[in-house]
Write a structure and sequence with these properties.
Blueprint lengths: L1 H14 L1 H38 L4 E6 L3 E2 L2 E2 L10 H10 L3 E15 L4 E9 L3 H4 L4 E4 L4 H5 L4 E4 L1 H8 L9 E4 L2 E9 L14 E5 H9 L6 E6 L5 H15 L10 E4 L1 H44 L1 H9 L4 H38 L7 H27 L3 H5 L3
Parallel strand pairs: 5-10, 7-9
Antiparallel strand pairs: 1-11, 1-12, 2-3, 4-5, 4-8, 4-11, 6-9, 7-10, 8-9
Helix pairs in contact: 1-11, 2-9, 2-11, 2-12, 3-8, 9-11, 9-12, 11-12
Length: about 400
């Protein structure tokens, strides 16, 4: 009898093939939309993780903080208490520190013989390539001696090299001018790409931090310190030690606010991925609405089908079909529509996700849980919205159904 119910149900769907296909269209679109939205969210999370990784693994960033002067609160980075001596103290006194790099930036115009380009000049030390896992493409990076004597040497990012000298040109030995002062190019960094916040890391020029302090800005402070930890070091414990060292050196009294901030890649990644997750679930929820609309479409068509086949239902009941047989038949039809729509929606979602990656260049990672969740939701939609029409069909009185016009 069960086989007969399935055969009758599928024959009814086959007789109205176009209507069945259009009914499943809402489920197809809904499933595909959910898969694509979740794939884009997963891709965004992976992209953020890779960009955070590009900043250097297990790196704590110490930034200059804010202060209150005369009741006015200055912005982040306004305090000038961080120094290169603080970086030395952190390296010598904090356990688990592998390397440190004080930093001081200045945005200025870089001028060469063939052109000019406004970019970020980043003052640092010889440890920065190791800390940020950044290779030198041509030439060399400056060394400790260059830093000690505030040498006028520069290492160009790939974007700056391309703008000043042309793509692929080796500018080592050439002279560029920063703030009207001549600097000799000694190297070019390999391409690094964008940071997590979107800044192009290749659009920069590295010079010794002492050179920025003495020749470009005339200051003694630094804006930040990068602290690279040893592989087995505890980032939380190291952060606490760094804070203790800086509070002591800056003379901050107990209970007073720090004049610096500490950030780890994990903290930045957590904030960014939290935002991405929120947007992903929001978009997936909006996409799931189309699944509900598709379920309403299934219920509507099934109700129409019950009305159209009232006499057929009465005849089946008259020759011995039970209520549960009729209920099962219409439930099978509803489930067939939703499951077929779910399968086609999964295929469409996979195609759309890969299409977005190949055509638009957006990162999209399709996960197996996303496929199962969307397909399971489609099946549940079919069961929920198909039950009411099926129950209505099973409740028809055989005599009244046979006389229905």
């Amino acid at each position: 009898m069960a086989v007969n119910v399935f055969a009758i149900a599928f024959e009814a769907l086959r007789r109205n093939l176009l209507r069945s296909a259009l009914t499943s269209l809402g489920i197809i679109i809904g499933v595909a939309a959910v898969i694509v939205m979740m794939a884009l969210g997963a891709g965004a999370r992976a992209s953020i993780a890779s960009r955070i990784q590009s900043l250097g693994t297990d790196v704590i960033t110490v930034n200059a903080g804010s202060a209150t002067v005369g009741g006015v609160r200055t912005g982040q980075g306004a305090v000038t208490t961080l120094t290169t001596e603080d970086a030395v103290a952190i390296r010598e006194e904090v356990s688990g520190v592998r390397a440190v790099a004080p930093q001081l930036g200045a945005r200025t115009q870089v001028v060469a013989v063939r052109g000019n380009w406004q970019t970020q000049v980043q003052g640092s030390t010889e440890t920065i390539p190791d800390i940020r896992a950044w290779a030198v493409e041509t030439g060399t990076f400056f060394d400790q001696e260059h830093v000690a004597r505030a040498a006028t040497v520069a290492v160009l990012g790939a974007v700056v090299r391309d703008q000043l000298f042309g793509a692929g040109v080796d500018p080592v030995g050439q002279i560029v001018r920063l703030n009207q002062q001549p600097f000799r190019v000694i190297g070019v960094m390999a391409r690094k790409g964008q940071q997590a916040m979107g800044q192009d890391q290749d659009d920069t020029v590295f010079v010794p931090v002492t050179t920025v302090q003495k020749r470009l800005q005339g200051v003694t402070h630094v804006s930040s310190i990068l602290v690279a930890l040893a592989p087995q070091a505890d980032a939380s414990a190291a952060s606490a030690e760094i804070a203790a060292v800086l509070r002591r050196r800056h003379g901050i009294q107990p209970g007073a606010a720090d004049d610096f901030t500490l950030r780890t890649p994990q903290e930045m990644a957590a904030v960014l991925t939290s935002t991405t997750d929120t947007m992903t679930y929001l978009l997936a929820s909006v996409a799931a609405v189309s699944l509900i609309v598709g379920g309403i479409g299934i219920m509507n068509i099934m109700l129409v089908s019950v009305t159209e086949r009232t006499k057929e239902i009465g005849l089946r009941r008259a020759v011995g079909a039970r209520r549960r047989d009729v209920l099962r038949q219409f439930m099978v039809e509803a489930m067939a529509l939703s499951l077929a729509g779910g399968l086609l929606g999964v295929a469409a979602g996979l195609a759309a996700a890969y299409g977005v990656t190949s055509i638009l260049g957006w990162a999209a990672i399709v996960s197996t849980p996303a496929i199962f969740v969307s397909f399971g939701f489609a099946a549940a939609i079919g069961m929920i919205f198909g039950y009411f029409p099926a129950r209505r069909a099973a409740a028809l009185n055989p005599t009244d159904a046979l006389h229905y016009e």
